[in-house]
Amino acid sequence: MSDYDHVFEPAGMAPLALGGSAAAATPPRSQAAVGMIDGGVSAHPSLRNASIEQRGFAAQGPRPSGHGTAVASLIVGSDGRFQGAARGVSLLVADVYGGDPTEGSALTIARALGWLSARGVRVINISLIGPANPLLERAVTAARARGILVVAPVGNDGPAAPPSFPASYPGVIAVTGVDARNRALPEAGKALHLDFAAPGADMAAALPGSGYATVRGTSFAAPLVTARLVIAGGGGSAIETVSREAVSGRGRVGRGVVCGTCRVAPREVGAKQ
To answer: Is 9-269 in CATH node 3.40.50.200?
Structure first.
């Protein structure tokens, strides 16, 4: 039996070009670890003291990307006014692009899930979207069977678009984004279920090398939910803990908005528009 090896794309507006050198590998400083499947992560002042390990799963090996750098900074960044939502936690990065936007296949993501599962992470952020794929579904199911929480965004193709994956798989924590007034983003896509919302607009994230960009999209909401779940210890109890933190929002926000105070306003860090 065969099927398509679909390509999955980042679910957010951020520079995707290569930039800067890769973030330096550092020894783990915390027993808590979070996994991330995305593009590679660049060196950046906000990540200078972060514990980051990267491994490449595309043909070119790990290569820094704008999207991966932005997502990583939202989790573990720390630089003056810019503070990630789970700084101090060790970050394991699985680069499924290697600098090539045509990479990010279901097979590559499945291999990345296997690596992160073997490394013992409790929560994995996948800020990517694509169609339903049997191989990826099996890999997600295997990770979930080990008690790992998988977090994914609903995408940015609008509510009329087909359901996004992996967010739509059973047990995956599906995340949408809200603006600074806790209004659901009008361009947010949909999944077959929705768990949480988090800031996904009117916010800053790191650019490769240095500086910050103003970002928008459900890609950037998902890592904030991921951060809250890993701080809560992962597992089913973490979902209940984060659910108790959720506050009401406007529009379709699932159980509510979490990590609302995690948003860093672009003006606070001189972010590029």
So the answer is: yes
